[in-house]
């Protein structure tokens, strides 16, 4: 067997994990989110920059403000999910670099003194971390509903600031009635992999 991960864990994280569009009422606790973060924070990023920032939208008032910025087809599920997280990239991540990369503290000034370099690096690496986060949600026995059908500029003004770029909004909870669409096909290995 080429995969060493327990087959049940493979199913939980990938084969049987589905994107959820409806949820039960079961709450998602801060303890669960902390356990998810404390696992996925070990996923790799360039220079260990870890630019992902997570805003948990819990209060009914904040949820209402969030829903206004969602595409129409995403509004009902975002209004009713037990928890919603805004995943954003911190474009000023370089301030933490000397702490996060003690072996090479010069990286901050060598590579990230210019804002455009920081923005492109933060976008890539926070997106990687967003993927780790979604898999972490699954590892907690929960389902994620990631969404980019969002007015991101409106969302940024509502919840963030100019130093943060929102990337994905994620509904989180236990899947409810009819939570998933029929599974869509995936590209096969031969369609994707080229060896040179
Ligand atoms: C980055 C990203 C953005 C997405 N945006 C939306 C969205 O705005 N609305 C929506 O209903 N689904 C959205 N999806 C859900 C995808 O369509 C879904 O994850 C994909 O079809 C795989 O479904 P499965 O996990 O059930 O196999 C998004 C997924 C990702 C990863």
* CATH fold-level topology: NADH Oxidase
What is the CATH level 1 assignment? Alpha Beta
Number of domains: 1
Instruction: Return the structural class.
Output: alpha+beta
Order of helices and strands: HHEHHEHHHEHEH
Distinct ligands, ions and cofactors found in the model: flavin mononucleotide
Overall morphology:
globular
Count of β-strands: 4
Keywords:
single chain; 4-stranded antiparallel beta sheet; binds flavin mononucleotide; 196 residues; 4 strands; 9 helices; NADH Oxidase
Description:
It is built from nine helices and four strands; from the N terminus they run ααβααβαααβαβα. The chain has helices at residues 7-15, 30-40, 60-67, 72-80, 97-100, 107-111, 115-139, 152-159, 189-192; strands at 52-57, 83-90, 143-147, 164-173. α2 (30-40) packs across α7. The longest helix has 25 residues, at 115-139. The radius of gyration is 18 Å and the shape is globular. The mean pLDDT is 98. The structure holds flavin mononucleotide. Flavin mononucleotide (FMN) binds at residues 18-19, 74, 146-149, 168, 180, 183-184.
Précis, in short:
With 196 residues, the chain is of the alpha+beta class.
List the helices and strands and how they pair.
Elements (H helix, E strand, L loop, with lengths): L6 H9 L14 H11 L11 E6 L2 H8 L4 H9 L2 E8 L6 H4 L6 H5 L3 H25 L3 E5 L4 H8 L4 E10 L15 H4 L4
Antiparallel strand pairs: 1-2, 2-4, 3-4
Bound molecules: flavin mononucleotide (FMN).
The site of flavin mononucleotide has 11 residues, from strand 3.
